[in-house]
Design goal:
Blueprint: E1 3-6, H1 15-28, E2 33-38, H2 43-51, E3 57-60, H3 65-75, E4 81-86, H4 92-99, E5 103-109, H5 112-132, E6 137-143, H6 152-163, E7 167-168, H7 177-185, H8 200-217
Parallel strand pairs: 1-4, 1-5, 2-3, 2-4, 5-6, 6-7
Helix pairs in contact: 1-8, 2-7
The chain binds adenosine-5'-triphosphate (ATP) and magnesium ion.
Residues 15-16, 39, 43, 85 line the site of magnesium ion.
């Protein structure tokens, strides 16, 4: 059961939205998803409180550095995908979650500030590889992409990342009202009312394409080898 975390040291990059889209789409496709809310701001937990039970989704809240590994172990036998939503920080919990991940998704908006927050996560991944020999797969996922941003800034970001050998998902996440709406009314893209939310079909297509690409990156045959890893780096390590 792959562990996928969403990280960007800058707040507001689109982590929670991307994590929820992926989780709800995988669940819609019949996979059992455990969504771990590792952000003290509790956006995922609040979404869940609003939504009630969503088929195939389990939520874990109140996560700490000490408890994260236990949650993964406890839920492993009834989870196909773990998805971890992280705070916009580079602290001990972010570092621990990344160390326990099979794949780190780094949402990046088409702005320089976001690229900086993403670079901090890429530096952390490089440090883990260098110091601990932990090579954790990771990809940048472009978010809040509109027709206006598609050209120059996106090409520039992709070029910069390619230079660093960073994978960029082929599926960008568009700027869509439906994605914001999930946090307003709860539920999933499949329970929203198409008469009230514009372009819901396109939003669903986007989520499906995202989930399909992520599944191809992380086939179910991924088997977590050996004992889960916990690594703490840096001043804030607990
Ligand atoms: N694809 C999108 N389409 C429309 N709105 C979006 C999209 N992605 C994010 N947003 C909006 O941008 C804001 C920040 O997004 P989100 O909460 O997902 O970012 P975050 O990286 O999780 O932030 P934080 O670091 O504070 O946890 C929210 O208001 C959200 O509704
Ligand atoms: Mg968030």
């Amino acid at each position: 059961m792959p562990v996928i975390s969403f990280a960007n040291a800058k707040g507001g990059a689109g982590k929670t939205t991307a994590a929820l889209l992926l989780a709800t789409e995988l669940a819609h496709q019949g996979h059992r998803v455990t969504l771990i809310d590792a952000d003290p701001q509790r956006w995922i937990s609040q979404w869940h409180e609003m939504s009630g039970n969503v088929r195939n989704i389990s939520i874990v809240t109140e996560v700490t550095v000490a408890s994260l590994q236990c949650h993964l172990r406890e839920m492993a036998s009834h989870t196909d995908y773990f998805i971890i939503d992280l705070a916009g920080a580079r602290d001990a919990l972010v570092t621990t979650a990344i160390g326990l991940s099979d794949h780190v998704m780094i949402p990046v908006q088409g702005s320089a500030m976001d690229a900086k927050g993403a670079a901090q996560i890429l530096d952390l991944l490089a440090l883990m590889k260098e110091k601990a020999g932990l090579a954790i797969a990771h990809s940048v996922v472009l978010t809040r992409v509109t027709a206006m941003v598609t050209t120059r800034s996106l090409v520039a970001i992709k070029g910069l990342l390619a230079q660093r050998g960073v994978n960029v998902l082929n599926t960008p996440i568009g700027e869509r009202t439906a994605f914001r709406e999930l946090f307003e009314v709860g539920g999933t893209l499949h329970t929203l009312d198409g008469a009230k939310v514009s372009n819901l079909d396109k939003a669903r297509d986007n989520a499906r394409a995202l989930a399909d690409e992520v599944k191809r990156l992380m086939p179910m045959r991924v088997i977590r080898s050996g004992i889960p890893r916990v690594i703490n780096f840096g001043r804030n390590a607990a």
